[in-house]
Task: inverse folding
C-alpha cells in the first residue's frame, strides 16, 4: 500500500510537499522492514517533515510507538498534522472497577481505575478450619463455624459498602477467590443492593490477598470487554426495538441523524467504530465564494485532492479549486452530540449487532428523545 502511495504522491503539484511526502513514506517502509510481525498490541508509526527553525528547515522524523492497550483500528492518513486521537483515548481516566478476593481465611478489597490498581483494604476472617477440636461434637462445631462464616460475610459486606459506595463512577464489581467461598458470599444478600447490581463477574483464582487481586487484573481486559459487549448489545437492542415497532423514536443515516442532533432530539447517538468516512470541503481560491462538501472514505483523501488539480470551478470556470477542511464524520457528529447533551456510544463490529449497525444502517444511528423529522 505504501509503495502505491509513493507512486501516487508523484502527482502532488508542490515540489516541496511531494518530496516530504515521498521521503516520509520511504522512512516508514524502512521501519516496517524491522518488524517480522505486528506486535501483540499493534503498531503506530508517525513520520513527517518537522520544522526545526522556520520554513525550509524541515527534517524528516519518525516515531514508532507500541500502544498501551491493543488497538482495534487500521488507519493510514497523509495530512498536515499527526492524528493522535486514538492514542489519547488510552490516556483518559476510565471508570472504576471494584475487586473483592475472598476465601475462608481472608479478604482483599481493591480498585482498578484505568491501568492503576490500588489495594484498598485487607481483613482476616477468624473462621476456624473444617476440623473438630476439644471434644466438641461435629454438629456443634459446624454450627459455630457457620455462624462465624455468616458474621465474616456480613463484615465483608460492610467493608465493601464503605469502600465502594462512595465511588461515584463505579462501573462494576468483580468477585474472585479460590474455592466456593466467593460463590457462597455472592449468593447471599451481604452487599448493598446497588453493589449487588454491579457484580459483573465471578473469577476463580489460585490465591487470595494481593496476589489474588493480580490474578483478577490479568483477566480484567477480557472481563471488561465482555461487559462492554453486553452494553453494546443492550443499546443496539433498544435501537432495534424502536425501529422494529416503528415508534418514530429511532433514525439512521448521516443526514437524518445530523438533522435530529441539530434539533436536540437525539437521546443516544450510535456510531460504528469501523466508520472510516470523512467530510471534505472544496472551495475556490478566487472571489466567487464557491464551497462544496463531499463525504468520502478516509483513504481516498489524497487521491481526491489530486483530482481537483486542473478541475474548473463550477462558478467562475477557472482551475482554482482547492481542498479545505478534512473532518472525520464521527468527530463532526460527536461534537454536535456534546453540544446537545447527547450520549454517544461507539459500537464495535465484534458483535452481531455491531455488524448490523455497520452493514444495515451505514454505521450511524440514533435513539430519539422525541419524534423528529426523518
Result:
Amino acid at each position: 500500500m505504501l509503495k502505491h502511495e509513493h507512486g501516487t504522491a508523484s502527482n502532488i503539484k508542490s515540489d516541496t510537499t511531494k518530496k516530504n511526502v515521498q521521503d516520509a513514506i520511504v522512512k516508514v517502509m524502512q521501519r516496517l522492514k524491522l518488524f517480522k510481525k505486528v506486535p501483540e498490541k499493534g503498531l503506530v508509526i508517525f513520520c513527517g517533515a518537522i520544522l526545526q527553525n522556520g520554513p525550509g528547515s524541515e527534517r524528516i522524523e519518525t516515531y514508532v510507538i507500541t500502544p498501551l492497550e491493543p488497538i482495534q483500528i487500521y488507519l493510514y492518513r497523509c495530512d498536515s498534522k499527526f492524528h493522535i486521537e486514538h492514542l489519547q483515548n488510552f490516556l483518559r481516566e476510565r471508570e472504576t472497577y471494584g475487586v473483592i478476593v475472598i476465601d475462608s481465611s481472608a479478604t482483599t478489597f481493591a480498585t482498578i481505575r484505568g491501568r492503576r490498581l490500588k489495594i484498598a483494604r485487607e481483613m482476616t476472617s477468624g473462621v476456624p478450619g473444617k476440623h473438630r477440636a476439644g471434644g466438641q461434637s461435629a454438629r456443634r462445631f459446624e454450627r459455630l463455624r457457620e455462624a462465624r462464616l455468616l458474621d465474616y460475610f456480613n463484615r465483608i459486606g460492610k467493608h465493601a459498602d464503605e469502600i465502594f459506595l462512595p465511588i461515584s463512577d463505579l462501573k462494576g464489581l468483580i468477585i474472585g477467590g479460590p474455592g466456593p467461598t466467593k460463590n457462597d458470599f455472592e449468593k447471599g444478600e451481604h452487599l448493598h443492593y446497588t453493589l449487588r447490581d454491579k457484580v459483573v463477574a465471578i473469577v476463580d483464582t489460585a490465591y487470595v490477598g494481593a496476589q489474588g487481586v493480580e490474578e483478577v487484573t490479568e483477566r480484567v481486559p477480557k472481563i471488561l470487554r465482555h461487559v462492554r459487549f453486553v452494553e453494546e448489545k443492550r443499546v443496539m437492542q433498544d435501537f432495534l426495538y424502536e425501529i422494529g415497532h416503528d415508534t418514530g423514536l429511532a433514525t439512521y443515516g448521516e443526514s437524518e441523524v445530523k438533522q435530529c442532533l441539530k434539533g436536540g432530539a437525539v437521546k443516544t447517538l450510535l456510531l460504528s467504530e469501523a466508520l472510516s468516512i470523512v467530510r471534505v470541503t472544496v472551495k475556490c481560491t478566487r472571489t466567487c465564494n464557491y464551497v462544496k462538501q463531499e463525504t468520502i472514505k478516509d483513504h481516498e483523501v489524497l487521491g481526491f485532492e489530486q483530482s481537483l488539480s486542473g478541475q474548473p470551478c463550477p462558478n467562475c470556470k477557472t482551475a482554482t479549486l482547492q481542498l479545505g477542511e478534512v473532518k472525520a464524520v464521527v468527530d463532526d457528529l460527536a461534537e454536535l452530540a456534546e453540544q446537545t447533551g447527547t450520549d454517544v456510544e461507539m459500537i464495535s463490529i465484534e458483535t452481531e449487532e455491531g455488524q448490523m449497525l455497520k452493514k444495515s444502517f451505514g454505521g450511524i444511528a440514533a435513539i430519539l428523545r422525541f419524534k423528529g423529522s426523518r
